[in-house]
Amino acid sequence: MPNRLAGETSPYLLQHKDNPVDWYPWGEEALARAREEDRPILLSVGYSACHWCHVMERESFEDEQTARMMNEHFVNIKVDREERPDIDSIYMSAVQALTRSGGWPMTVFMTPDGAPFYGGTYFPPVPRGGLPSFQQLLLTLADAYENRREEVLQSAGSVRDYLQASTGAAMPKAEAAGAEVLAGAGAALLDQHDDRFGGFGGAPKFPQPMNLEVLLRHHHRTGDRGALAAVETTLRRMADGGIYDHLGGGFARYSVDAYWLVPHFEKMLYDNALLSRIYLEAHQATGDPFYRRVAEETLDYVLRDMTSPEGGFYSAEDADSEGEEGKFYVWTPREIEEVLGPEDARLAIRYWDVTERGNFEGKNILNVPRPLEAVADEFGLAPGALWDRIVGIRSRLLAARDERVRPGRDEKVLAAWNGLMLRSFALAARVTGRDDYLEAARKNAAFLIGNMKTDGRIHRSYKDGRARFNGYLEDYAMVADGLVALYEATFETRWLVEADVLCGAMNELFWDEERRSFYDTPADHEELVTRPRDVYDNATPSGNSVAVEVLLRLALLLDRNDYRQRAEEVLDEMGGGMEKIPSAFGRLLAALDFSASGTREVAIIGDPDAADTRALLDVVYSRYLPNKVVAGRAEEDAESAGLIPLLAQRPTRDGKATAYVCEGYACQAPTTDPEELRKQLETH
Description:
With about 675 residues, the protein is of the alpha+beta class.
């Protein structure tokens, strides 16, 4: 008989609806029962694409004896961390404080009022690797709560005090000015960069696109070739490695090794949003078509496999299919020969380094260890001819792979992650000139506003026709940020108005006057053990950092000095963090660069769909200009001129689309000539 999770929409929770565990979703029903029966709470947090979450479910939550122990001694609550990042953040901080490590599945034992007294991640069904069995842990903690209550409550009180103190603690002020903080951050990240394999640190190795953005900006600001070389090394190594899907496009979550070969195979929307954007920006900075190709392949994957009919972007694809991690993605030489025949198979096997021995459990993760030119020389082909062959081979292998059992897909639509992808599609539409990307961005924005926004407030999650949960800071900030990018790509003012509405609500609901920064949860949110405030970048940029960036962009577009002042308050509050640990503040450092390094304001007057307007826009988006805002209108569009001061009293010249470039309260001469605009933008 299904448990209480059967009424949920989260695919992760629904995966557990038939467990013999008496699971509750997080809510007053479960918390009230714990209080009334004076039972400890067992909180289990995970997400649908998490491999070890699936393992622990099979080993423990589907086991009748384990479930009886859980049901007898605990009130059991299951949470999808992607729907409830507040709960995940609070209790992950507790687990890290208790154990010095963290991860998912997260397992937390709490008092009935929500104070954690013990926690960890995965626990095996039998003692292993220094861990007790899950059943041993259940019995030990149930006994402790029953017979050593004072000790348990003391531990819980200490953890509660730690959580509340860490949320309220002030960050030290920066000792240096903004330009010096930026220079120090660039130097520090270069020191941390792996010059051989790219990326930062060792195994497991995660993409860190926010830190790559800091280095790309550092190069743009200073001309430091080492910073650009670091970015290029990382982006090329990743795109050649097994972390990249060479047939279908898109990146996996991380690499288990230091050289990007063996991924943890789940694909997350946010990774592909952030990585497609940094590849587009690398293309703008270098002109190298390789980076544009990887970005387009990644976005094409999202359009093909991760987009709902209504225009929302799905959250994730699992690592596992048919109970095996990576099974969908790996190949043997024989499988390739069966699809391609001997001649093309020989080429594919060499290009993607496929061997009889394999590089992953006897099979092969496709990767590109040799330059295209070297393989072409081996086969007596010109590099261009080889690539044309690879493109055809790739499409045939992809079609064959699509006949396999696919990994599970988490089809909930999360506002924040959609905002990240919206910005990438909007940028890509202008960089590549592809109208299908612009249509995807428009459709996504209309979906978010039409289905996930009510009375000026955004919801966190949407699935099966239901928008649920309060939006968090990151939802407001990232959706607003995506809408501003869509305005810049289309000059359709409705998107800018919607972004302004969301930022007004964000300021009202999340601002902390004392700490001069934003909370993660709105003021009228349910009361938890503490009110979380996450200022550090993780796999996604922090809500505070994106809030600062979008406020700065809107301040310029709408001439909102109050938005600029608020953003600068956060930059000042977080200055010491950016100075001391820049790797945790990549997106906020980008916002600091935007604020401190001078910003271009580009106004284009002309019909947005006309060829002369598009020619000017092509110039603007053909180069890497991270510190800019772009506004535009048709000459007769009085509404836009009234809303956006940058567009006021700026006519076309000689009836042609006309560009105005301003910086530091001074404007250059208006021009209708794309080459003249190019020169103006190249002038620092």
